[in-house]
Design a protein that fits this description.
13 helices; 364 residues; globular; Isopropylmalate Dehydrogenase; 2 domains; alpha/beta; 40% helix
């Protein structure tokens, strides 16, 4: 992994399309990335790697050593999706989805940032009433490399199974610092979500977050139990600024927030570690039911490019230009089927990518 030199004009980006619609949406994201380079005078050297089911078909492993080495030698990673119905047996010891867990652990990516912004032109796309979602602007900061997903599962015969959740104070403190720093650049409010009335891990979580909060007197901290947070995300989503939570809770709540934006196809994410290096991906999965049909929404992948250049390459103007181009396309009525009202003309995955690329180039 490299920390990018701000004086560089050439950057190496590992591109892992993966499975299903990941291949389609990452093609459009890569297209937009190169337009960023043309407009702002950067050269992005992209190199593809195998991951997920595509890697298993070729190598038998969801994350080949060559792919990991490529990521470690790059300035950032652009990831599509992992998951293939051919490997859907939940009893299988090796599955495509394991690639992402292994990548996060191997690359030290412990913080997942998932911004949720309800674009005014898409207020009707959400199943919630427009007045509830209008003005929503929040970010979920999810711990990525601990908790129940990294516990010690145990199957006892056919009648009993056990999963363990483990957190250390240091793990909680480092993700809490990320959330408070993010909040300082926003509306200075952190909502820490746990289940402290039931889980020992959550009680440790709450204590550690309280301790970290003492370092950020300018940021307001509140605690919510996860069941209450799930309810309030639907009842009063505009009240949230930064949501800080553990791995499993963050996985569930960030998918819930997709209904605020109108589609999972709109939401990007960043997985970060201690330095500038990061992995960037849309929050949706491989969606095999629509793969190959040219109807997947590439905007989440394209907005992941904006996060990539902002966080890993420290290119704020470039990131803003991508986001502005996406907003312009939505304002002009560009819609893939997932965000189109009945009867409205839609565009294909590739056409949506072309529209964003054109809007980005026009503002040069």
């Amino acid at each position: 992994m490299t920390d990018p030199d701000k004086s560089k004009t050439q950057y190496r980006i590992a591109v892992l399309p993966g499975d299903g619609i990941g291949v389609e949406v990452i093609a459009e994201a890569e297209k937009v990335l190169h337009v960023v380079g043309e407009r702002f005078g950067h050269r992005f050297v992209t190199e593809k790697g195998l991951v997920g089911g595509a890697a298993m078909a070729r190598t038998g492993e969801p994350l080949p050593e060559a792919t990991l080495a490529l990521c470690q030698a790059s300035d950032a990673v652009l990831f599509g999706a992992a998951g293939d119905p051919k490997y859907d047996d939940p009893k299988a010891e090796v599955r495509p989805e394991q690639a992402l867990l292994h990548l996060r652990k191997a690359l030290g990516l412990f913080a997942n940032l998932r911004p949720v912004w309800a674009h005014p032109a898409l207020a009707e796309a959400s199943p919630l009433r427009p007045e509830l979602v209008r003005g929503v602007d929040l970010i979920v900061v999810r711990e990525l490399t601990s908790g129940i997903y990294f516990g010690q599962p145990r199957v006892e015969g056919s009648e009993r199974a056990v999963d363990t959740m483990v957190y250390t104070r240091a793990e909680v403190e480092r993700i809490a610092h990320v959330a408070f720093r993010v909040a300082r650049g926003r509306r200075r409010r952190v909502t820490s979500v746990d289940k402290a009335n039931v889980l020992a891990c959550s009680r440790l979580w709450r204590q550690a977050v309280e301790a970290v909060a003492q370092n950020y007197p300018d940021v307001t901290l509140e605690h919510l139990l996860v069941d209450a947070a799930a309810m309030h995300l639907i009842k009063r989503p505009r009240d949230f600024d930064v949501i800080l939570t553990a791995n499993q809770f963050g996985d569930i709540l960030s998918d819930e927030t997709s209904v605020l934006a109108g589609s999972m196809g709109l939401l990007p994410s960043a997985s970060l570690g201690k330095g500038r290096f990061g992995l960037y991906e849309p929050i949706h999965g491989s969606a095999p039911d629509i793969a190959g049909q040219g109807i997947a929404n590439p905007l989440a992948a394209i907005l992941s490019v904006a996060m990539l250049v902002r966080h890993s390459l420290e290119m704020k103007a470039e990131a803003q230009a991508v986001e502005t181009a996406v907003a312009a396309v939505l304002d002009a009525g560009g819609r893939t089927p997932d965000i189109a009202p009945p009867g409205q003309r839609t565009v294909t995955t590739q056409q949506m990518g072309d529209l964003v690329a054109a809007a980005l180039a026009e503002r040069a």
